[in-house]
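Structure ticket #2291
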Amino acid sequence: MSAFTELWAQLAPVGRDPETGGYLRYAFGAAEMTLRGWFLDQARARDLVVEEDGNGNIFAWWGDPAAGGAVLTGSHLDSVPHGGAYDGPLGVVSALLAVDELRARGVTPARPIGIAVFAEEEGSRFGLACLGSRLLAGLVDPAAAAALTDRDGVTLDTAMRAALGTGPAGARPDLLGRIGCYVELHVEQGRALVDLNRPVAVASAIWPHGRWRLDFHGEANHAGTTLMADRRDPMLTFAATVLAANDEARRLGAHATIGRVQVYPNATNAVPGKVSAWLDARAYSPETMEQVVAGVHLHAQHRAMTDGTKVTLTAESVSPETEFHSGLRDRLAKLLDDAPVLPTGAGHDAGVLSAFVPTAMLFVRNPTGISHSPAEHAPDPDCEAGIQSLADVLADLAC
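Resolution: structure written out below.
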């Protein structure tokens, strides 16, 4: 059994739903806290110096982090609802094993090497993606973050205090200033590497992307006694908006998804009074993304006039296009035997940190092309190739 297979098996049962095979690893919940404890044990077993930043992020250092110019790697441990095993944890496990590989090579870093575990990267519990890295960078006010609530009405502050004993601390320029560069390894969220017949790629950029909440207001009423002509049914407006999102994205060569919805009162025998839905939009340019969102909103408003309903649009999280550091990107691609350079439509903590430190990403081949699903997969040999590639990158940058 390889070192990767053995270490990966330790994570496999944690937070897994036996019915779907997907993972329920929400920030500061029981499963994610178990994984955090596992990471702390792994870091200490390797004599790494553990540091927590007050925002739920963990850093494990090989070498003195106060020396500055550190090479940071890592990812996250939380998941989307019923998500796959690899999104996030692969980057953490690979970072630990890359350190093992460098030690096996007899390498001593000239610059500190750090492994980061970022909190609430998916935004699945509190609705704001990359929350831990945004707090670290000072891009989110800690008081506003503390007031964020999950679907059960639990605030971030309450959840963090229950799990960690403290609420969000906010910006840590002292810690961020010690980082010389950040390289995040991640499972590929697509299948380009299958066609290219390569196990590892380097990222070029992250598409602009965002999340918007659409609230459709109508009139709750009895399903059996309310005439069809008298209904003000927001579900009709919602349904038409889902179709409009699909049409707009296809027309403009973008991506638009409505994958989360809440219906009130959510009763079989009641016409809904309100429907809330979340639109995820991504595109190759910010102008195109804005055009998609505006088009969806316009379609929703027109349909609302027909249905006798009202619709409001609220931006919850919007991220601009992220171009990774070109010098670092090109250096890594050359180092890794002219690895393919690929864009991505997915957001990452690397995108947040890119505004503050030179940042790059490595992708490990995903033969299914599926992500955020139990079908997400990367074969062990490709994962091991990713570890070797990450070790080569860390050796080049830190040693």
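Closing remark: The chain has a mean pLDDT of 96.
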